[in-house]
Amino acid sequence: MTLIEFNETQGIFHLHNSKISYLISVEEGGLLSHLYFGKKVKDYHGQMRYPRVDRGFSGNLPGTFDRTYSPDTLPREFSSAGEMDYRTPAVLVRQENGANALALRYKSYQISAGKPSLPGLPATFVQNDNEAQTLTITLADEVTGIEVDLLYTIFANQAVIARSSKLRNESDQTIYVEKLASLEMDFVDKDFDVICLPGAHANERHLERGAVNFGKQSFASLRGSSSHHMNPFIALVDKKTDEFQGEAYGFALVYSGNHNFEVEKDQLAQVRLVAGINDFNFSWKLVAGESFQAPEILLAYSDTGLNQMSQAFHKTIHNNLVRSKFKNEERPILVNNWEATYFDYDEEKLKPIVDEAKDMGIEMFVLDDGWFGHRDDDNSSLGDWKVYQKKFPQGIGHFADYVHAQGLKFGLWVEPEMVSFDSDLYQQHPDYLMQVPGRAPSPSRNQYLLDMGREEVRQNIYDQLVKVFKEAKVDYIKWDMNRNMSDVFASDLPSDQQGQVYHRYILGVYKLMEDLTAEFPNILFEGCSGGGGRFDAGWAYYMPQIWASDNTDAIARQTIQYGTSLVYPVSMTTAHVSAIPNHQTGRKTPFDTRGAIAMSGVFGYELDLTKMSQADKDQVKVQVKQYQAIRSLVQFGDFYRLKSPSEGNQTAWNFVSADKKEAVLVTAQVLAYAQPYLTKTKLAGLDPDKYYQDQETKVIYGGDELMNLGFYDPVVHEDYTAKMYHFKAID
Ligand code: GLA
């Protein structure tokens, strides 16, 4: 199947599949121009050639007299500094003479089957080369010899393109890459809104939408991490776009470090997006012959609203980014002891929780923070991955055996990137800590960052973890990271390479994860960073699931899980039922509500099972069975958002199996009213010609009825309610 064509006479590249087309042209002087990204077109007949108009103060190409052709207005694929383009550049390179000018011009192209990997970085892949094609366009700067490869992969069956860029120093001098975007995309005649996912610890990824105005907006993280505060994703959408209609362009960076999405509306109301690693404190030295690879970014297009954009991301992340052998396996229902005990536990205190878990049908016990060093609170022992003898006198393996003997899997919490001052590791290797010489490092949760960019540091942690993973016979690992980066400095790098530290850190973390996940393919790894502080597409390459938030409140979780679903598949999003009053918000929500919201993700419990009422214990047994019955559908079905928690008193979403024979609907309401306005819920994604039976009431509906008429939501006189409906198609 041909997915990429090049028309030599026109100088037009056309990437297409049955859903989308992406058009690029080589213009006068070798400038690469962006023509189109959107719904599929069969052929291209030249109508998107950018009109030549003389624009004041937008100059022209050196050596030409044509005033109508300016790099400052042309929609570009990858712009540089130093030429007549006053918009945000995609690349900045400081050269030996101090100049940062580059004139990147089309040099050559290559089309290859499949999808190349990106060394050291997470990136999409395909099983067979016929699932994708990759176009590499090489741009070159004639004066220095510097070259940039632009990579575009189009997948055969998705409305998704993966892009990245690589700068090769083909000059004879040492240069410093001070910015290298993963993508630039310019739009003409688009009055966009921009959607982003900002947040905070315990309040991650709530959907925000605003106008793209003149000037520049930036959606960024400088925390050394993809962050709770601004997820590495934006969507540019038409004003009228909603969940089910309108155009949406989504951009998700496959990267876990500092990022920046710069959106600029220029003098002609054209919109430029430049996205990739944040150039703050970034400077990558390249001696002659070396190259720098920017992370990958996924572009998803939808002409029928946000749900379709999200589904394209979900499928691509699940199929082409998650590598774990557990990707298609139903994930175990777990109980985690964090909110049950915090640090106050030992083996004898935990055993009854394990016993209860067994009785309730729960499938895995996860031992959270506090099992190592001499950790009784969060002031010590990070870096010492040896069992705390006081809590486990017969070793961690002994407790793991107990858990396994009850028929449960055993999981363990670790925080590999950190060190406490009060630790053996710090006593032995104070230099492993990231700190600026002569300055006291800043604590956060009274802990400090190890410089994971250094091989020696990684090796130390790797050796400790391998030992304990084996000893503890773990089935699952929760990999945490409970602070952001500060004191950014690497003691082993010279001054002209300190601008590499942020990125080198993330590459080091990727390397450590690569090594450990390769060494332990049978461990299910879950990412975490104070909840969802590193919930990004890059992480999915190493770990198939991530703890979505430390906020376990069922009302707050609706907003968090709703926003998360904009990009990330449900199989990646973990959600637990916890105790009331909720530890983060103090709110008391009914047990059913907590169950319905947590069952909308990868499900588990985060409470002391021994301290529950008998009624709640019985309810857990019911929930476990209920979730087991819908687990595959929830984790691997198609997900549709129906009502947004940020737009009113209600939330609704539904899951539909691939064969459309089964669906689960979850509806939730925040407050009850004396005289409520009546509301309806309509499902989405069903087969209109099938008949579906509500498994609880046994009432039968047509798929078209459920989608077009819907039904009245029940009137309830109770706050914080939620209800789960399970429909099965009948013959
Ligand atoms: C983070 C995690 C929590 C828990 C604690 C332990 O905050 O998100 O789930 O593991 O660390 O310290």
From TrEMBL:
Residues 650-727 form the Glycosyl hydrolase family 36 C-terminal domain. One of its GO terms (molecular function) is alpha-galactosidase activity. Gene3D superfamilies: Aldolase class I (3.20.20.70), alpha-galactosidase from lactobacil brevis (2.70.98.60), Golgi alpha-mannosidase II (2.60.40.1180). It is an enzyme of class 3 (hydrolase). InterPro entries: Aldolase_TIM, Alpga-gal_N_sf, Alpha-glycosidase_related, GH, Glyco_hydro_27/36_CS, Glyco_hydro_36, Glyco_hydro_36_C, Glyco_hydro_36_N. The keyword Hydrolase applies. The active site is at 480 (nucleophile), 550 (proton donor). Residues 30-286 form the Glycosyl hydrolase family 36 N-terminal domain. One of its GO terms (biological process) is carbohydrate catabolic process. Keywords: Glycosidase, Hydrolase. PROSITE patterns: ALPHA_GALACTOSIDASE. It catalyses: Hydrolysis of terminal, non-reducing alpha-D-galactose residues in alpha-D-galactosides, including galactose oligosaccharides, galactomannans and galactolipids. It holds the Pfam family Glyco_hydro_36C. It comes from the Bacteria. Its EC number is 3.2.1.22. Belongs to the glycosyl hydrolase 36 family. This is Alpha-galactosidase. It comes from Ligilactobacillus equi DSM 15833 = JCM 10991.
